[in-house]
Design a protein that fits this description.
Order of helices and strands: HEEEEHH
Shape: elongated
Structural class: alpha+beta
Oligomer: single chain
Radius of gyration: 34 Å
Number of strands: 4
Distance between the termini: 102 Å
Largest sheet: 4 strands, antiparallel
Helix content: 40-55%
């Protein structure tokens, strides 16, 4: 059998895709286990039963080489009412960070919003009459262009 360069390149490409797929599945399983453990540790309810991929980027690993850093998000609740979102960062086959949404503080200072002004409802016929009388008044107050030309000659 004769192996040409095209076949070897395709074989290497297929191997790289298979490696990436396997590495992504392993990272997702690691993130899922970390999210479940973190929720159990804080007595939170882990929702949906899994993590979801959020982003992937290149980063420097502990060895100094470029590695893939993957971020996964998960949903949890503390009171079975409010749904919050946490995240897990996986890099170099280890969990770097598990984070949670910030807690709402009852003593937080919220910006007061000025109440809206009440709506002013205008009947269309009245508005048209007012516009027409305003246009007529403006037309009478300013001389027309044709009158200005006649008076200038």
């Amino acid at each position: 059998m004769y192996l040409d360069w095209t076949f070897l390149v395709l074989l290497c490409l297929a191997a790289a895709i298979a490696w990436f797929w396997q590495d992504s599945l392993a990272a997702r399983e690691m993130a899922n286990a970390a999210a479940i453990e973190a929720c159990e540790r804080l007595a939170l309810q882990f929702l949906d039963g899994t993590v979801a991929f959020a982003r992937m980027r290149l980063a420097r690993g502990a060895s100094g080489w470029l590695v893939l850093r993957r971020t996964y998000v998960f949903d949890y609740t503390a009171n079975s009412i409010e749904r919050r979102q946490g995240f897990v960062v996986v890099c170099e086959r280890r969990v770097e960070t598990v984070g949670y949404a910030p807690e709402e503080r009852p003593d937080a200072q919220y910006r007061r919003v000025r109440p809206a002004e009440p709506a002013r409802i205008v009947r269309l016929d009245d508005w048209r009459r007012a516009e027409k009388t305003q246009e007529d008044a403006e037309a009478r107050a300013s001389p027309r262009a044709s009158e200005r030309e006649d008076s200038g000659n």
